[in-house]
Amino acid sequence: MKRLRVLIVDDSLTMRRRLAELFTADGTFEVVGEAIDGQQAFEHCHRVRPDVVTMDLMMPKLDGLRSTELIMAHCPTPIVVLSAAESRTEGQRTMDALAAGAVDAVDKPSGPPDAKWSRTFLERVRLAARVRVITHVRARFQREREPVRPPPVVPAVPTLAQAPRLLVVGASTGGPAAVSFLLGALPPGFPLPMLLVLHTTEQFDTAMVEWLEARSGLQVRKAVDGEALPLPGRLCVRMAPGNRHMVVRGGRLWLEDGPERHSCRPSVDTLFESVARELGGAAIGCLLTGMGRDGAEGLGAMRRAGATTVVEDESTCVVFGMPREAIRLGAAQHVVGLTALPMLLTALARADAREGTA
């Protein structure tokens, strides 16, 4: 079996040695280079063309964020960021790195990594290496903010049996940048609250909600166990905390410690299925970019319950895994690129509220 070629980037010799030992002992990786700063990382990527990069953020000369931007612009390569999650500043820089194109972020251990961390880290690097990275994500979304000629084609909005009361969104790989774009592009008068599941960890969930709130100007909060389901009328966001499933039951949000689904907790399927049971057709389900199949079955449950379902088109997905599975299962009523998505969701929300109860 061909080994995955990995480039290790960290200014700490100790950390580089620890990671190199992990990769070597695993047997499925080949360490093809080490870099002590972001400039070296950029140069090594050009020269050795690794399958995946592990990237420290805080380094001299050129930091990990800027290096990620350069690599994604000039030699796109899957990048896994290692970050000290307890630092608020570094947490925000981690979110910026994800928006710039990094595939994943892992909490950096303060000492020798234990067996659990090592297993999780190696698996996430292995998964990241499978991502086909072809463009600078930040540049792509910036282009999508500019006028497009011809304008995006938005599917005709049908008249539905029930006016929606809630928008639920799920995403994984590439999700932070996609959700940030979506929140920034929805109009000020968008009338529905949003429940959000991103495959993030409890180490980074606070940084994620703060980052999304700062970039969008909207109220973005981690969901609180037992809080009332937000009422329709304005856009606010409640995100599932890391390592907790979020469900809707009895008009409230509940956080649960149930088993992982598709190796995920929080799980998009868990949220979507609860919304199908609780709200029936009075919801819109939206599945964005992500690896794997979490959310596809739940979106199908929502569609069978009468809800409106939307998935992101392959043309704008970082990873067309979760949306592809939803399409395969017949769960998707609408398939649109990220550019057209805010227009479609706004039309659905407003048209249904005006016509759907007729």
TrEMBL record:
Active site: S172, H199, D294
Gene3D superfamilies named in the record: 3.40.50.2300, Methylesterase CheB, C-terminal domain (3.40.50.180)
Modified sites of kind 4-aspartylphosphate: D56
Matching SMART domains: REC (SM00448)
Ranges where the Response regulatory domain occurs: 5-123
GO biological-process terms attached to the record: chemotaxis
Catalytic reaction equation(s): [protein]-L-glutamate 5-O-methyl ester + H2O = L-glutamyl-[protein] + methanol + H(+); L-glutaminyl-[protein] + H2O = L-glutamyl-[protein] + NH4(+)
Pfam families: CheB_methylest, Response_reg
CDD domains: CheB_Rec, REC_CheB-like
UniProtKB keywords: Chemotaxis, Cytoplasm, Hydrolase, Phosphoprotein
InterPro entries with a match to the protein in the record: CheB-like, CheB_C, CheY-like_superfamily, Sig_transdc_resp-reg_Me-estase, Sig_transdc_resp-reg_receiver
Notes concerning its domains: Contains a C-terminal catalytic domain, and an N-terminal region which modulates catalytic activity.
Name of the protein: Protein-glutamate methylesterase/protein-glutamine glutaminase
